[in-house]
Specification:
Largest sheet: 2 strands, antiparallel
Number of helices: 13
Radius of gyration: 21 Å
Number of strands: 2
Order of helices and strands: EHHHHHHEHHHHHHH
Strand order of the largest sheet: 1-2
Distance between the termini: 33 Å
Length: 262
């Protein structure tokens, strides 16, 4: 039986990040290192700076998106002060070299947290299920395995570039999942579907001439996209467009199944 999942809305995600940030003890560490802890990143990663920057930018985007959703409910932007503005400023890459103690007192004030708690209440009907950690790890492992196979398989420059683009797009979305939820994954899959649709004739010609190893790699790429789409569909429970809405998995399947089934 699948475990009960946490329900999250745009403001609830911000509240979770805010609480994790403000619970950090006072010290003189640079904000870049502190954000790495808040985002759950590997401090020893050779790509740490890029990962922290990507997550911080995603957080700033999530703040703007949440304000947009609040405006739909008639909430003026000034009612998100000071919490939203202070969190956005603290997440600015221009402050990465500042120390945590220089931001801690201002961001920890009760009126800041209040902005996130009531915003979460206002957006209570805009929830999605939070992806179980094991599922997130599985998708990231799938992407790593696909990229490793790509480096080891004889494949034409065109197909290599095409597959690498899909890998990079999905990996970037997974990197910021904890900040923005399923939305970046949905956008990544939509770009992947668009790439398949626009380049279909070229893809089919290259695939037809490819050796068996390359065809297997392409099938693996299709499987990864299909699994990612299925996860997105399982998490997005908002149902804004009713029960007849076309799922991402249904959009991806016609493009990738021919390669998976060959």
């Amino acid at each position: 039986m699948r475990a009960t999942l946490i329900q999250m809305n745009p403001a609830a995600r911000l509240l979770t990040i805010y609480d994790t940030l403000t619970q950090q003890p006072a010290d003189q560490q640079p904000m870049s290192h502190l954000w790495a802890k808040v985002f759950g990143l590997d401090i020893n990663s050779p790509h740490l700076e890029d990962d922290v920057t990507a997550c911080a930018i995603a957080l700033r985007q999530q703040i703007d998106f949440t304000r947009t959703r609040l405006s739909v409910h008639g909430v003026p932007a000034e009612l998100t002060h000071p919490g939203f503005d202070r969190l956005k400023n603290t997440a600015s890459p221009s402050n990465f070299h500042a120390v945590w103690n220089s931001h801690r007192d201002a961001i920890q004030r009760p009126e800041c947290r209040h902005a996130f708690t009531w915003a979460s209440w206002v957006l209570r009907d805009e929830t999605e299920e939070d992806m179980p950690p094991d599922d997130l790890v599985a998708l990231r492992t799938e992407i790593e395995s696909l990229e490793k196979s790509l480096s080891e398989t004889e494949v034409s420059p065109y197909l290599r570039d095409f597959i690498q683009r899909q890998v990079d797009t999905i990996r970037a979305a997974l990197r910021v999942y904890g900040v923005r939820g399923v939305r970046p994954l949905q956008e990544a899959l939509q770009r992947a579907v668009g790439a398949y649709a626009v380049e279909r004739a070229h893809v089919e010609a290259e695939y037809a001439a490819a050796p068996e190893g390359a065809k297997g790699l392409f099938a693996k790429t299709g499987e990864t996209l299909k699994k990612t789409a299925e996860v997105c569909d399982s998490l997005d429970k908002i149902k804004r467009f009713g029960e007849n809405a076309v799922s991402l998995a249904a959009s991806v399947a016609p493009l990738v199944l021919p390669y998976i089934l060959k």
